[in-house]
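Ticket 4471: requesting a sanity check on a complex prediction with protoporphyrin IX containing FE. Repro inputs:
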Amino acid sequence: MKFITYGFGRRVCPGLHLANHSLYISLALLLWSFRIVQRPDAPINTHAFSDVVTPHAAPFKIDVIPRVKVAKLRAMMTDGCTD
Ligand code: HEM
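Returned structure tokens:
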């Protein structure tokens, strides 16, 4: 195993492939749907993490900009892609 996220050995998580593929699909859809960008007026401090056992990034602001018009996205999700 490259990472211990899913445990290892006989007790390794049996859902790891489902989980990894689900994450891949979800992230790919997010990146396809939105441009996720740093705000010019609020630069992100990439060194700011919480000082705990499981550290996470300090809060920061971003812009999430739809790549496709929301109405068209809704239509694609309900009627399927017709282009
Ligand atoms: C990001 C998602 C997931 C993470 C990080 C994760 C992580 C883990 C970890 C750390 C264990 C314990 C391993 C050990 O005891 O040494 C575990 C066990 C388990 N996981 Fe996952 N898991 C995830 C998703 C899933 C999914 C999607 C399923 C089922 C569809 C699943 C089913 C199980 C089962 C049944 C066990 C118990 C295995 C056993 O004790 O023999 N997990 N998981």
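Notes from triage: The longest strand covers residues 34-38. Leaving this open until the requester confirms.
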